[in-house]
Design a protein that fits this description.
Layout: H1 2-92, E1 102-112, E2 120-129, E3 132-138, H2 144-156, H3 159-162, E4 170-176, H4 182-190, E5 194-199, E6 202-205, H5 208-215
Parallel strand pairs: 3-4, 4-5
Antiparallel strand pairs: 1-2, 2-3, 5-6
Length: 216
């Protein structure tokens, strides 16, 4: 009787081992499939990250290129404005702006600071007359901050550190553009700076009499 019970137990153990073996085999196959799925998922994530990094770099390059092109366009617009305004300034400077007969005239003139050789500055237009020197600042886009920067430069006395040879000359300041809004003209008038722009297809001083009265 005992022998039969032991035989039954051994038979059950054998069946359990067989079932466990099948389970392990199936589990192993399932784990292998999971591992492969995880590996494919990691590869997909890596690919997405790589594509995203590539797209980011391309976007940054495109943005830099766009900024460069916009900068070139802006610089070109500024040059065009200077080229249009410069001849008119040369006409207005001797009499209308009181500079006297021309001694020299230059556009986009680069000068080095007399006390600091490491500093340099470009001046849009400079008319040197017998009576005065006309200093012009031209902006294609006449923003208020540009006008304030110009006025600050005038008040700083830095001009004579770039042009010490003109210390005995009166400086006639001009801020110019193809178009100047009324509020900016009013600001320049209050600072005794001549506002010059196109009006009726000709270059005109928009605040000639008020600035002359203020300067006098």
């Amino acid at each position: 009787m005992l022998q039969e019970q032991l035989g039954a137990v051994e038979e059950r153990v054998d069946r359990l081992e067989a079932i466990l073996g099948q389970f392990m085999a199936r589990s192993g196959a399932a784990l292998l499939r999971i591992d492969r799925s995880i590996e494919r998922m990691e590869q997909a994530i890596a690919t997405l990250r790589s594509d995203a990094e590539t797209d980011r770099r391309l976007w940054q390059e495109e943005r830099r290129e766009l900024a460069r092109q916009l900068g070139n366009i802006s610089n070109r617009l500024g040059t065009i404005a200077e080229d249009i305004i410069a001849p008119g300034l040369r006409r207005l400077a001797p009499e209308a702006l009181g500079c006297g007969p021309e001694q020299s005239f230059a556009v986009r003139l680069a000068r080095t600071h007399s006390q600091d050789p490491g500093r340099s500055r470009e001046f849009d237009a400079l008319f040197v007359g017998e009576k005065a020197v006309l200093l012009n600042e031209t902006k294609a886009t006449p923003r208020p901050e540009y006008a304030r920067d110009f006025v600050d430069f005038l008040h700083s006395g830095q001009f004579f550190l770039y042009f010490p040879e003109f210390r005995d000359r009166r400086v006639v300041p001009v801020f110019s553009s193809l178009y100047l809004p009324d509020d900016l003209v009013a600001y320049l008038t209050g600072q005794n700076v001549f506002a010059v722009a196109l009006r009726d297809d000709a270059l005109q001083v928009l605040n000639l009499e008020p600035v002359q009265a203020g300067s006098g």
